[in-house]
Amino acid sequence: MRRDEEGLSEIVRTVARETLAVILVYGLGLAFYGHLTPGGGFPGGVCAACGLVMAVLASGNRSGFVAAIRGRVAALEAFGALGYLGVAALGWTAGQFMQSSLPRGTPFTPEGAPFLVILNLAVLLKVGAGLFAGFAALVAFGREAPPAGGGEGRA
Asked: Which of 32, 67, 78, 141 is most enclosed, with most CB atoms within 10 A?
């Protein structure tokens, strides 16, 4: 078996498997509390995508994990985009685009701005799936970078 097909050592695979849930939950927390603290859907999506990239790099290109995630990436990205547009268009029922038609709760809590929480979670899905899809496309090419000299046979 080639090295890229089998992944990294068992220690790295175990650490990646154990920390993946922590990284994904942290990304979800960034998106969920993004209207209260520095964060939001974009950094949460980047964090989630980095966790998935770490898992793929640790487990190897041909693992079952990679195949399972690749099949769902397009659906998650589409769901994030449609969720964002759906919530944004929900404001039309109140007479204004991108205005919250949801009741507000207690300030400085996630329930205080449910409109923003839903938008942040939709952006998390869109950004996380998009970045991971870009990584998966680069892995699919499987080409090495050109030589540092700019190519062969050039002076």
From this structure: 32
